[in-house]
Specification:
With 271 residues, the protein is α/β, with parallel strands linked by helices. The chain contains eleven helices and ten strands. Strands 1-2-3-8 form a four-stranded parallel sheet, with helices on both faces. Strands 4-7 form a two-stranded parallel ribbon. Helix 2 packs parallel to helix 3 and helix 6 packs across helix 11.
């Protein structure tokens, strides 16, 4: 698919020759590959290694990050100096991948930047948390939030995350940058906004950890998600002071507007 600013091609990332051809002459690479949690360990590190091995001076790799590598936050709001103290498999893996990225960048001379986000939602975000929430709201069902409804939690609209990544890529900056979204919000508040915009009744509940654990007996992705539930048990709030000081023109989308756009996308998928 081709447009005035974007060309989309299908590629097997294991095809070394095709990958090298694709990356030749490219100024900026956004590493947005993702796979089901259970496949992270075998696919993600190798994919990153293949890509970074082919980059060189004059090129930039943008590696969107998450907060898994921090483990449970040791202070709030967490800034970029927060310890990488992950206890989970996925958190440790993300830390290893970021170290690989920095090592390859130092050796090959390319620029690397890591915009670090909280959980994201929006069009095309159909994971096991947000897919059922938006679809359920459109069907006037009771919708669920993991573990606790009363804990502050940063969320970022996926289109805002993309804008922030482009700002960083075009700026010439390097390193890690927190981008936290439109402010911390409790799960119940977020679900109420969704249901109000969907014109459905305010019916919500928690998805308890034991239920996710039970589902994990039969579902590999649920099993992998279970180790991340601490993020919903305790507050998850990021400091984006560094980012906002550098990019004062950046303005995240208000929750109400972002939810309205997201519901519109999910509604189209149901038609």
């Amino acid at each position: 698919m081709r447009g005035p600013l974007l060309t989309m091609v299908s590629l097997d990332i294991q095809d070394e020759r095709a990958l090298a051809s694709l990356l030749t002459g490219v100024r900026t690479v956004y590493f947005c590959l993702n796979v089901p949690y259970q496949d992270w360990y075998t696919i993600m590190p190798k994919a990153l290694e293949r890509v970074t091995a082919k980059l060189h001076s004059g090129q930039t790799l943008v590696f969107p990050g998450n907060v898994y590598g921090y483990g449970r936050f040791q202070y709030l709001p967490a800034d970029e100096s927060h310890p990488k103290a992950a206890l989970t498999r996925k958190g440790k893996l993300r830390n290893q991948m970021e170290e690989l990225l920095k090592k390859q960048a130092a050796e090959n001379g390319f620029r690397n930047v890591i915009p670090r986000y909280p959980d994201y939602y929006g069009p095309n975000v159909t994971n096991r948390v947000f897919g059922p929430i938006f679809n359920g709201a459109l069907q006037a069902k009771t919708i669920a939030w993991p573990v606790r409804l009363d804990v502050p939690h940063d969320l970022i609209y996926i289109r805002d995350a993309a804008k922030a990544a482009v700002l960083l890529a075009e700026s010439g900056e390097e390193g890690e940058w927190h981008v936290s979204g439109s402010g911390a919000i409790e799960g119940r508040q977020f679900l109420n906004i969704i249901q109000d915009e969907a014109d459905s009744p305010r019916k919500c509940r928690t998805l308890p950890g034991w239920a996710v654990g039970l589902a994990g007996i039969f579902d590999k992705e649920a099993k992998e998600f279970h180790e991340l539930l601490y993020e919903f048990q305790y507050p998850l709030v990021l400091s984006e002071n560094k980012f906002m000081k550098r990019f004062p023109e950046y303005s995240p989308t208000a929750y109400k507007d972002a939810v309205k756009e997201t519901l519109g996308w999910f509604r189209e998928q149901q038609e």
